[in-house]
Amino acid sequence: MSINRSVWQDKPGVPGTIRESPIPTKLEDSTVLIKVRAWAINPADAILQDRSLPFVKYPVILGQDVAGTVEAVGSIASSKFKVGDRIFGFTVNNGFQDYVVLDHALAAKIPASMSFAEVSVFPLCITSASFGLFGGQYLGLSLPTVNPTTSNGKSVLIWGGSSAVGSNAIQLAKAAGYDVIATCSARNFAYVTGLGASKVFDYGSPSATDDISAELDDQGQCAGIFLAMGNVADACQVAHKSKQKLFVASTNPVKPGDALEGVEVKMVFGVGGVDVFTEILPATFGGFLPEALEKGVYQVAPPPEVVATRGLEGVQVALDTLKKGVSAKKLVVVAE
Fold first, then answer.
1. What domains can you pick out in the chain, each with its CATH number?
2. What are phi and psi of 200, to 5 degrees?
3. What's the CA gap between 52 and 12, in Å, rounded?
4. Are strands 3-9 and 17-22 parallel, antiparallel or unpaired?
5. Each residue of 157-179: pLDDT tens digit?
6. CA distance linking residue 65 with residue 284, whole number of Å
């Protein structure tokens, strides 16, 4: 019998443990089985390894970003994929395995010019960015297109533009026709402007909130603020100081006291089955992203940094490295 291996997180605060199990043989109609060739590591993986959160039940297999080759296909999924296809996709806390089952709606083919490591950086970060930017509960922006012809005359602020989520939010908002203002540390200004931001501010500057709010008002109509990473209170300060009293969509939890008078702030959070992702699929796996990658008009951002240890044994190495701090890059583990 062929063997699958998985990294189990038995409880918070301990390293993951690799265990063997049979490879899944029964697939739901809408799913595919892939042999994973690359896993990307997210801050959420490190958080869930160290901290107990109410919506996670341990033991659990962590990992959300995977890329690999199709081994088996369900009847519905066969309209999109076939055995042998190179694909990448998103899975909720099930990714750190040699063989992973994906829903076909949350996966896409890999362009021939791209590696497994490159595309593995996208799934979670582009999903999170798309929820915040295009989700009806959040900023509700117009959807991106591969060849945007004109600007719509509106701006959007991406707080934490050099983060994995921020790197994709900048590109998505730009492709949707918005003028992007972003924040990051001063050392990442060139990186963020290279992704499409027209102006960048150092979030560590003492005058950052005053300067940014003034810029947003000078620009005219601002569609809102998306906090990809950083201090929620600072983003809310900008929203409050702006004459427009801007909406804030935040990937970070909102604490009491973060929101100020006249400012609405909401945490970006998707709970439930695949149906939750339906409204953002045109921006991710079901439309814009695979076409933009195929045509070479979307950057691999942040760029992958492959850790030296290969296979599932490299997952804990990568998690430990991430916990020490990384900037403007995404750690990736390759299978071989």
1. 3-121+303-334 (3.90.180.10), 127-267 (3.40.50.720)
2. -130, 140
3. 6
4. antiparallel
5. 999 999 999 999 999 999 999 99
6. 14
